[in-house]
Write a structure and sequence with these properties.
CATH class of the largest domain: Mainly Beta
Largest sheet: 6 strands, antiparallel
InterPro entries: Carb-bd-like_fold, Galactose-bd-like_sf, Polysacch_Lyase_4, RG-lyase_II, RG-lyase_III
Radius of gyration: 21 Å
Helix content: under 10%
Strand content: 25-35%
Keywords: Signal
Shape: globular
Structural class: mainly beta
Order of helices and strands: EEEEEEEHEHEEEEEEEEEEEE
Number of helices: 2
Number of domains: 2
CATH topology of the largest domain: Jelly Rolls
Number of strands: 20
Protein name: Rhamnogalacturonan endolyase
Distance between the termini: 35 Å
GO molecular function, one term: carbohydrate binding
């Protein structure tokens, strides 16, 4: 982890660690033909994986509370009766500068955000006063009821993401039963803006379904936008009453020339709304962070797991 959080390495408490077919960091999410073997690290970052099928794997990990994916560079060959120790591993999550503000918890889920009460006609009593309240039917339609004319506006320092950040950025249903895309705003203040610097916006998504995320700064009509994901996702999480699907992470450089001292606005637009399943075009955010320009001081890494894994096949 960077020095902006801690000068020392931090044990990867609760890290998810697994062996999956070789690929890039995070590729285990899309693998559907190979075998995978996963466990969680203890409070000190130690773990072991046992009873693994013979074959060649990469070791992958991610740590709740930190963005990004880890992959051990060397392939791991598992043979009958083997006992492998990969030693101590260090993960350095993406970080350029100090946190100016953040929204959410980097845990690959949108569960911490505001989940509305269901339509009384569709209440599932199993999920009344239940932690998984997002499993109620039709919650996506509550967005248009809460925001009939104007989209969500979130103000840093005043708003509370547990109350003011709708759990999914969905389309808005109009009176004629058609749908329109939505643009959310994040309002924030900057005390100082060094015009020669670059700020960094980190956005991780918990899921996306035939959606596009466009980013603009201080001009909602800027064409082209500062950044766009293009059309992403086929998770269908919204329709299936889930709270996460595939994980997406984007790091967007913001030239300081686009920002001003004082009040600024970040515009998040999801424009796709013109298909028979327009109600389910949308995305769920996992975590958003704005970092200031980096300083010249070096950074250090996070220790997600100190490993004595005993990756054996019994």
């Amino acid at each position: 982890m960077s020095r902006y959080v801690s000068e020392d390495c931090i044990p990867g408490k609760g890290a998810y660690v697994g062996l999956a077919p070789p690929g890039d960091a995070g590729s285990f999410q899309r693998d559907c033909k190979g075998y995978q073997f996963w466990t969680r690290a203890d409070e000190h970052g130690y773990y072991s994986i046992k009873n693994i099928r013979e074959g060649q794997y990469n070791l992958y990990a991610w740590v709740p509370g930190f963005i990004g994916d880890y992959r051990y560079d060397a392939a791991i060959n598992i043979t009958a009766g083997c006992d492998s120790d990969v030693g101590e591993l260090v993960y350095e999550p993406p970080r350029d500068g100090p946190t100016l503000w953040e929204i959410g918890i980097p845990d690959r889920s949108a569960a911490e955000f505001y989940v509305p009460d269901p339509n009384p006609n569709y209440i599932n009593k199993l999920y009344v006063n239940h932690p998984d309240r997002f499993r109620q039917y039709g919650l996506w339609e509550r967005y248009a009821e809460l925001y009939p004319d104007q989209d969500l506006i979130y103000t840093i320092g005043t708003s509370d993401y547990a109350k003011d950040w709708f759990f999914a950025q969905v389309t808005r249903k109009k009176d004629d039963d058609t749908y329109e895309g939505t643009t959310w705003q994040i309002k924030f203040q900057l005390d100082n803006v060094n015009k020669s610097g670059t700020f960094k916006l980190r956005i991780s998504l918990a899921t996306a379904n035939i959606a596009e995320l466009q980013i603009r700064i201080n001009d909602p009509k800027a064409d082209p936008p500062l950044f766009t994901t293009g059309v992403i996702g086929k998770d269908n999480t919204i329709l299936r009453h889930g709270i996460h699907g595939l994980y997406w992470l984007y790091s967007i450089g913001i030239p300081a020339t686009l920002l001003v001292q004082g009040n600024n606005t970040l515009f998040l637009t999801q424009p796709i709304s013109n298909s028979p399943l327009a109600a389910f075009h949308g995305l769920m955010y996992d975590y958003i962070r704005l970092e200031g320009p980096p300083s010249s001081t070096s950074t250090r890494g996070v220790k997600p797991a100190t490993i004595a894994p005993n990756t054996s096949l019994d």
